[in-house]
Amino acid sequence: MLMLLALAFGIRCQAGGDFKMTIIPGRPEKYTGYQNLTLADNDCVQYCLYEPTCAVVYMKDGYSDCIVFSASQIQKVLQVGDFEGQRVAMKMKQTYTCGDEFEKNSMFGSETTNTSYIEYEIFIGSDSLWTFTITKSLKCPSNYKLFTRAKGLWCIGLVTVTGGVTGDNSGLSCASAASGAILSGLESMYETEYIYGKGCLF
Ligand SMILES: *[C@@H]1O[C@H](CO)[C@@H](O)[C@H](O)[C@H]1NC(C)=O
Ligand SMILES: *[C@@H]1O[C@H](CO)[C@@H](O)[C@H](O)[C@H]1NC(C)=O
């Protein structure tokens, strides 16, 4: 019981869009790299919230260093006492409320870029370590762009042909362009703009 109270202590949240930042007193314990930006406390948290490749930020009282980790860089975060003046904000999928106990937070997040998608989960051990695990990692073939469709993720690429082409032959050209590629229509204005924008380049 004491353990649970200790873990629940000091969790704050900042929400925006599909995600929220869950903030705990803590510091990164295990990681493979980071980016060092100059952003004061709240700006640092907001930066991460809206930056697709940011999963975690670390801040310290009295400094405006904003230490930024992507999901593939951060491995473990150590929760510390509130009095130590250092905080870690972790990006998670939005839930209706800001859980003041970790069980009420979604404890998973994702990074979507123009060409890739990564999903991660966060587990808390009895040692106060918040451990990040990549559970899904997808990447479009080179020269393809990632779009999020109603039915899921979709990589779109263009095959150029000279002169006219039949529907059947377009299907064949697509199939030979990349493994698993199929001829497909356009689902959104984003996709249309992308295709037309690309067309002008050729
Ligand atoms: C971040 O950059 C600042 C200013 O250059 C430097 O003082 C600080 O030690 C750096 N922090 C890390 C963790 O690299
Ligand atoms: C991602 O795509 C958008 C729109 O096509 C473009 O404005 C942006 O610069 C791209 N970002 C990267 C990192 O390539």
Question: How would you concisely characterize the structure shown here?
Answer:
The protein has 202 residues and is an alpha+beta fold.
Describe the secondary-structure layout:
Elements: H1 2-8, E1 12-16, E2 19-31, E3 35-38, H2 41-50, E4 56-60, E5 65-69, E6 74-79, E7 86-93, E8 108-112, E9 116-124, E10 129-139, E11 145-149, E12 152-156, H3 167-177, H4 189-201
Antiparallel strand pairs: 1-2, 2-6, 2-7, 3-5, 4-5, 4-7, 6-10, 8-9, 9-10, 11-12
One 2-acetamido-2-deoxy-beta-D-glucopyranose binds next to loops.
Signal peptide: 1-15
Keywords: Signal
Protein name: PAN-3 domain-containing protein
Polypeptide structure, described:
- This is PAN-3 domain-containing protein.
- Keywords: Signal.
- Residues 1-132 form the PAN-3 domain.
- It comes from Caenorhabditis briggsae.
- With 202 residues, the protein is α+β, with helices and mostly antiparallel strands.
- It is built from 4 helices and 12 strands.
- The strands form 2 sheets. Strands 1, 2, 3, 4, 5, 6, 7, 8, 9 and 10 form a 10-stranded antiparallel sheet that branches.
- The longest helix has 13 residues, at 189-201.
- The N and C termini lie far apart (65 Å).
- Mean pLDDT is 85; it is low at 1-8.
- The site of one 2-acetamido-2-deoxy-beta-D-glucopyranose (NAG) has 2 residues, from loops.
